[in-house]
Structures are given as structure tokens and as C-alpha cells.
Design a protein that fits this description.
The complex is a heterodimer of chains A (113) and B (112). Chain A is an all-beta fold and 113 residues long. Chain A contains no helices and eleven strands. Chain A has strands at residues 4-5, 10-14, 19-25, 32-38, 45-51, 56-58, 62-67, 72-77, 86-93, 101-103, 107-112. In chain A, the strands form two sheets. In chain A, strands 2, 4, 5, 9, 10 and 11 form a six-stranded mixed sheet that branches. Chain A has a five-stranded antiparallel sheet with strand order 1-3-8-7-6, with no helix packed on it. In chain A, strand 9 (86-93) and strand 10 (101-103) form a beta hairpin. By secondary structure, chain B is mainly β. Chain B has strands spanning 5-7, 10-13, 19-24, 31-37, 44-50, 53-57, 64-68, 74-78, 87-94, 102-103, 107-111. In chain B, the strands form two sheets. In chain B, strands 2, 4, 5, 6, 9, 10 and 11 form a seven-stranded mixed sheet that branches. The termini of chain B are far apart. The chains are: A mainly beta (113), B mainly beta (112).
Chain lengths: 113, 112
Amino acid sequence: GESVGLHLPTLSVQEGDNSIINCAYSNSASDYFIWYKQESGKGPQFIIDIRSNMDKRQGQRVTVLLNKTVKHLSLQIAATQPGDSAVYFCAENYGGSQGNLIFGKGTKLSVKP
Amino acid sequence: DAGVTQSPTHLIKTRGQQVTLRCSPKSGHDTVSWYQQALGQGPQFIFQYYEEEERQRGNFPDRFSGHQFPNYSSELNVNALLLGDSALYLCASSLPSGYGYTFGSGTRLTVV
């Protein structure tokens, strides 16, 4: 079935380095994508989103890139900090903007001081 | 401005029992969705409520049911609990446009 998957289940980086978390999606009809950060014991926290009519979107220290040709999504975190340590999920939305979100399994980011 | 609030935060139930989880959406949001997150997995969509009706449903059995009230708050009910129902249950609310998904902190359900 349709699913969202992540290339790397774990990622360990040094504080101050840039982090890149990748995600593959399989539904070409998906039109909205969201990155979430989830800390232990908490619900997913919105980081950044992107619509399918865009290739790139930037936020504070984060950038999301969307490559529709290969159905690939990435999250770049600049100057990674210990507080960025968490599990990161990408989610896709198809069936319109009011549809449900399909999540991947997540990537655990560990930041070493 | 309060975000999405869920209650209770933790719950322990016995196999075969029934449970009700509650969610209050973020102010200005009228759509509520429920997700189940097993340990080490991503959230799985259960169903979505809009205008007090179930609008979409994921691949979950009829033991999972819900309700949305006129004030947009929502309940998730699970009957005949199984050990496999143990999970973090997340509620998310969104804007009338459908964007702005915001999650609550979840209810940790343990079935023994």
C-alpha cells in the first residue's frame, strides 16, 4: 500500500553541524507534506510544511526540500543543537488538505555535545 | 492560547474493558483527528471528525468509535480492549482549511 518511509532510522551528529533527514513517499497524488519532531513522552510538534507546488521552503534553522520527480523529501537542520535531539517524522497528505496524514516510522536524531 | 489538550494522560485498563479518551481542539480549529502510535512507530490514522460527523476513517475495526460535540471537542471510544490496543493515542486538530495540524501530548493507554 501507499506509505511514507525514511532512509535512515538513526542519525548522530556533532553539535553545530548540519543535519539532513531524508524521507521517501510513494503516493504521487500527495499534495502536502509536514515534518514533525517528537520528544519522548510528547506529541508530534510541527516543524515545517510544504505544498506540492513548491520545491523548497525555509524556516528558522530548518529547510524542507521536495523533489516530486523522485518522490523525495528532506529536512535540513542548520547548526544542530542538543535540543534538536528527538525523533523526526515526515508525513504526507493526500485526498486534499483535509485528509488524513500518513506517517513514516521516524528517524531518531542524536546530537553529541 | 491553549493548544490541543487531551485527557487523561495515562490510563491502565484490563483486557475486554471499554475506554473513553477526550480531546479539546486548539482555539479556532473545527476538525479533530485521532491517531494511534505504537511504541517505536509513526502515528496511524484512526478517523477524523468534522461538523460532528466522521468524515474519514483509517483501517481500524468498529471497536474504535468516536464523537464530536458542538464545541468541536471529541471523544475516542474503544470497546473490548485487546492487549494490542496498548499505545499512545494522539488527537490532532486543524483549521477549517484543513491545514495547521496540531497534536496534543496524547493519552498513554496500557491494556493488561
